[in-house]
Amino acid sequence: MTSLLDNPTISVLPAAREFIQSKHQLFIGNEFVDAADGATFETFDPATGSVLTTVASGGAVDVDRAVASASAALPDWARTNNRVKAALMMRLADLIDENLELIAQIDSVDVGKPIATVRFGDVPMASDTLRYYAGWANKIEGSTITPGFPGAYVYTRREPVGVVGAIVPWNFPITGAIWKIAPALATGCTVVLKPAEQSSLSAALLARLIAEAGFPPGVVNVVSGLGTVAGVALVEHKNVAKISFTGSTAVGIDISRRAAETLKSVSLELGGKCPNIIFADADIPAAAAVAASAIFFNAGQACSAGSRLMVERSVYDEVLDAVSAEADKLVLGPGLDEGTTLGPLVSASQQARVNGYVERALAQGVEAVRGGKALGQDGYFVSPTILAGAADDMPVVQEEVFGPVLTVQPFDTAEEAAARANDVAYGLAAGVWTNNLRTAQRMAESLQVGTVWTNLYNYIDASVPWGGTKASGHGRDMGREGLDKFLQTKAVWNAVD
Ligand code: NAD
């Protein structure tokens, strides 16, 4: 197996090639260091399965050093003039933009994402999120209260919670990291970032940019490593005040249990099984086209993937045909190939997991309208798969598949659609397609999710709160609410007489 980087038909920036193939270290106190025990792990090119390079594998000792560095930086950073905080964040945003193509190529190679989606989506969203939260740095306000005691008044201070452990998944590496770092910095917290082991490379570049932007040592530290080692050490560390986690529900539960031992606050952005519901009165061609992109974007590896398409019975056949026609247009290939619209999955284990869901569904009598067969080629590819005839209680309908696999099911009434859509463990997001305002509003109220998109899908913005209900987690990233979890309130009583 040769790496994508050795393919002469693929154009790669020399700087991207050099960076990707270099050995990556931890970033602690603005210095690049090896893991204390010298441990490393390999990271793979998902388009070919070949090894790209090695990454330092942080252990408990390294996490302890990073937390010590973040703790030492905390008092000064918390008291740093908010204009200075904002200026540093703006500088980092500028550096991300200046390195847009480099970052896009790194994440594309590392995760297999189609390059255009990283170039126009992930990276601009990362710099935009930094700028958005830079704007909040001087708008963190407390209140004054006249309590029920004569001769006293109270003011409240909104103070940073302390050192934040940010643990992120691999599906949106640069954006996921910035979603955590930006609000933490704006509120005066310091950070230890633990990127996912499948996608550590853009976090290593981000570390360079953080140093170049001029952040004081220790304000942001990056400890790459395994979840079960570095992740666990961060969650269990007594000097970490808060864990901000994005990832799977199973790991979110484990983190909650461990964090309870030190009474840390935890916020969880977890998995999803998002219904996308099309009513007969909708603009059907538009709804069907977006329904296809809702599931096939990022090869279905998105918490927000519209993996469960529900269609009013009278337009079911029309929508199924239209979505299938959209799937036929997809071009499978390596992320760096400009023509690719559907990249590989991130790892061999994800590929096996997704194929397993499809095989089980077919064995249960579900029909594969598209896909459904394992692809005999290198790399972790799964063809776009559309399944008809699935029952609500099947795993492929209930569980997060995290691949390019769509179930399409008919429904008869809005009440039935809402009840069935809610009858899953998850509650992250949902799509509703209708030209009837009342139907849209009723569905928005009925659906037990953190986000409802009506007549569009997958719109996400730094200014809009994002998060889930039920097994999709709690707490909100983004928007003004995204600041709350990094702040604690201190009430200061004062005698006036
Ligand atoms: P994952 O839960 O396996 O890993 C996420 C991160 O947690 C990684 O950095 C991993 O190393 C670390 N980790 C693993 N075990 C740990 C442990 N015991 N203690 C501490 N850290 C640990 O998830 P993944 O496979 O990397 O990502 C996919 C999942 O992320 C999906 O379920 C997806 O829905 C979810 N996700 C959710 C959102 C959201 O906003 N709700 C966004 C993106 C992804």
Short description:
This protein is an alpha/beta fold.
What does this structure look like?
With 497 residues, the protein is of the alpha/beta class. The chain has two domains: 4-270 and 474-491, 3-Layer(aba) Sandwich (Aldehyde Dehydrogenase, Chain A, domain 1), CATH 3.40.605.10; 275-461, Aldehyde Dehydrogenase, Chain A, domain 2, CATH 3.40.309.10. The strands form six sheets. The protein has a seven-stranded mixed beta sheet, with helices on both faces. Strands 9-8-7-10-11-21 form a six-stranded mixed beta sheet, with helices on both faces. Strand 10, helix 9 (249-260) and strand 11 (265-269) form a beta-alpha-beta unit. The chain has 16 helices and 22 strands. The mean pLDDT is 97. Helix 3 (82-98) runs antiparallel to helix 5 and helix 4 (100-111) crosses helix 5 (115-134). Residues 167-171, 194, 196-197, 227-228, 231-232, 235, 246-248, 251, 254-255, 269-272, 303, 400, 402, 428, 468, 472 line the site of nicotinamide-adenine-dinucleotide (NAD).
* Alpha-carbon Rg, integer: 23 Å
Helix/strand class: alpha/beta
CATH class of the largest domain: Alpha Beta
Strand order of the largest sheet: 14-15-16-13-12-18-19
Biggest beta-sheet profile: 7 strands, mixed
| Uncertain stretches | none
At the fold tier of CATH, the topology name of the largest domain is Aldehyde Dehydrogenase, Chain A, domain 1
Beta content comes to 15-25%
Tertiary shape: globular
Helix content: 25-40%
CATH superfamily of the largest domain: Aldehyde Dehydrogenase, Chain A, domain 1
Present as ligands are: nicotinamide-adenine-dinucleotide
Counted beta strands? 22
Number of domains: 2
| CATH architecture annotation name of the largest domain | 3-Layer(aba) Sandwich
Distance between the termini: 80 Å
Task: Return the average pLDDT rounded to an integer.
Answer: 97
Count of helices? Answer: 16
